[in-house]
Request: fold
Amino acid sequence: MNRVAVIGVGVTKFGELWDYSFSDLFVEAGSAAIIDAGIDGKDIGSIYVGNMSGGRFVNQEHIASLIADHAGLNPVPATRIEAACASGGLAVRQGVMAVASGMHDVVVVGGAEKMTDITTEKVTQILVTAADQEWEAFLGMTFPGLYGMIARRHMHEFGTTREQLAEVAVKNHANAKNNPTAQFRFDVSVEKVLNSTMVADPLTLLDCSPITDGAACIILATEEKAGEFCDSPIYITGAGQSTSTIALHDRLQMTVSDATINASKMAYKMAGKTPGDIDVAEVHDCFTIAELIGIEGLDFCDIGSGGRFTEEGCTAIGGEIPVNTSGGLKAKGHPVGATGVAQVVEIAYQLRGEAGKRQVDGAEVGLTHNVGGSGGTAAVHILER
Amino acid sequence: MGAPRFWRNTKSRYNLYGVRCGTCEKNYFPPRKICPSCRRASKLESVKLKASGEVVTYTIIHSAPEGFENQTPYIMAIVKLSEGPMLTTQIVDCEIEDASIGMPVEGVFRKINESGRDGPIYYGMKFRPPRSSN
Ligand SMILES: [Zn+2]
Reply:
């Protein structure tokens, strides 16, 4: 198996980008990554694109062809990957496999979503298509509702407090202030989180990631090609992916993300690393509770102890394992199909030492964790300098 | 949800018809074609489950999807049926502040939403605290 290097990264501003079309987003992120890598269009063997629901957000299917065309990359093969909010993470995995297998020397992996052209009610309805339509969504369930139920159960089983959940938002907003491309570059307090509009009790608006437009892109290459183009390649040394029940009610223990556990075990084993080796991580925090079950599933702390671990500052920059230095989905923004790719971009910045004011000193090993739905899919990647 | 997709499951929506696997002796709801634990050794037969159980967890929906706006705030829960399977359901005839984990509930036939995206009004099962305990 070839070693797989990240030789270029690019990301757009995240937010309500009214003057950007879907393809504007991708082309901007893609061009930035290609320039960063210093490659030429003719070097590219294949394109993989994470996108959850172009068909419903902007009435556009056949995303892969659109992107290759508008990026001026025809006739390079292009493939769209969909796994709800994990679409980007799975696109990364497809790119890794294409290079590791020797099929291609250089591939482009992108993710993009354009979510703000429609009403919030419509977005809510589209996002819940990631749940079981017939036995969850149809009955009036929403995505925040699913995570609200996980949060309440987590509080019941482990004594996690409402304040501990809010601490996730407080930390991620503080990190986002130092990320120029983040959507929410302002502080929030525990009190402000608790007092914001109730969405799905116990989760308030400030427990939820926002509706976001954005795109991210990375260039992957074999070690040999990386040497040609790049002085500071970052290697993807571990890749794991796993599935679990699509419906939350079918999960044996709903406070535990078994897909996260299984995907991370695969990735740790492949990289020959343990959770203690990870210096910085981007963890899927679509809701504050998601970061807690994420860090528990990744084994950064014991099952059930995520609230306390967060409250004690262990996941803050300067803590034991800094989590979501980018601001996370919560404050950087969550353009669903782009998220898994954007996580790799942030870890690449960290490992290259280019993360500016949010830099984790001496970071050598990083991890990304991307979840689809209420935990039906998880993808984990381990990156090393 | 489109009408054909709805009617296909009518039997299991109006009564809790699930399946029982003769190999592992577990019940599943909604019905499945393969037992997720036994796979090829599945021996599934239809079983009507008792519409009683208890709340495993719940949330109160304040921000509703289309078709449910006029019901907010409403309680959504995961209920564990007395015969094993868990399902997602709305809890009705219960004040929001009275909802709790462990609360016993029973099935009741109700309208699901005012008018579906495709026109028809859909009915199905919701759960409520048992009448006897009131
Ligand atoms: Zn069985």
